[in-house]
Amino acid sequence: MTLADYLLPDRTVVPLEAETVDGAARILRDRLVAAGVISDPDKLRRRMNEERLEDLVAMGDRAFLLHYRTDAAANLCVAFGTALRPICRELADGEPQCARVLLLIVAPPRYAARYLQVVGAFARFLSTADQVDRVLAQPTADALVALPEWREYALPAQLTVREVMNERPHVTRADAPLREAAREMVRSRIAALPVVDDEDRVVGMLSEREIIRDLVATYLQRAVPGGSVRAVGVGGKDARRTVRDVMTRQVLCVSPDQPLAEVASLMVNKDTGRVPVVREGRLVGFLTRGDIVRKLIGS
After folding, report:
1. What is the distance, to the nearest Å, from the Cα of residue 66 to the centroid of all Cα atoms in its chain?
2. Each residue of 62-112: pLDDT tens digit?
3. Could you list the residue range(s) of the whole structural domain that residue 145 is in?
4. Distance from C-alpha of 17 to C-alpha of 87, rounded to nearest angstrom
5. Into how many domains does the chain fold?
6. Rounded Cα gap, residues 173 and 190, in angstroms
7. Do 13 and 135 fall within a single domain?
8. Cα–Cα distance between 233 and 236 in angstroms, integer?
9. Which of 298, 288, 12 lies closest to 150 in space, CA to CA?
10. Helical ranges in the chain per DSSP H
11. For the whole model, what pTM was predicted?
């Protein structure tokens, strides 16, 4: 299949008359509803109103790609729009981010594999400035859908975890000092460390969540009557605390041969941002949501 198989004139808006990303997204959502491909419009509206960070991929100043997995749609569907003037959103630092192309992809959860293929293909197509210029030059929805470039861009083969994972992840040991493990996470700018034994078998996970829980517990224990609190450091009062004292032992692990779409769906359903990759019980890699996003957008 190619990108052309997902573009139809009745789901394409040229020009897309909106000033904000939210406004443009509503127009494209309504276009999908009018096309009869959304079985539960209210459910899709609620899902879009959640505004999760992972729902939007910004392709620099070229395009915004909004994607949602929800059973509000019976099949994977795409709405596409181009604007005469930049459509903007406000970033956390107050600075605007703008683009003239907006793409909306909606798919039911069971379409996980195809969903990732389509999101990744459109993201890579729109990452090229020349391609975006060609798209923006089309005066009507019919002309945009008829662009030959769409038919020349085939969907990529289904990816596996092995193609995306970090093959040399940072690790720690259960008997390592907690303070040292926490410092390693800060120095390396990583949010979690797989905990392995001498044979590289995964025995736990140390993440920012476990460290924060430990800090909060220690903070409450050391509260001084009268409202003041003595300083709290990682590991609390006992500097001999180890990773074993804090780590979680319930760790979701995946295989390097599993389809990436399957694992991505699992990570979303389990609300986890990272998973160790194991073969025959031994750690061979590490996969994060960030790794998947970077692969999808081709960077």
Report:
1. 11
2. 999 999 989 999 999 999 999 999 999 998 788 999 999 999 999 998 887
3. 3-155
4. 9
5. 2
6. 16
7. yes
8. 5
9. 12
10. 21-34, 41-49, 112-126, 129-136, 141-145, 148-152, 178-188, 208-221, 243-246, 260-269, 289-296
11. 0.66
